[in-house]
Hints:
Layout: E1 4-8, E2 15-19, H1 25-42
Antiparallel strand pairs: 1-2
Amino acid sequence: MIHFHDACGTTGKTVATRLLPDTDLIEGIEEVCKKMILNMLTLPV
């Protein structure tokens, strides 16, 4: 399981993420990217 905390900047282009201990670096980054892409796709335009 991937554990992380994230926050999106006001412009929507900046994401600060902290991967929690015992999280694989590459898998963690991939999961954050997947979540951010899903969030961007579901935002009303």
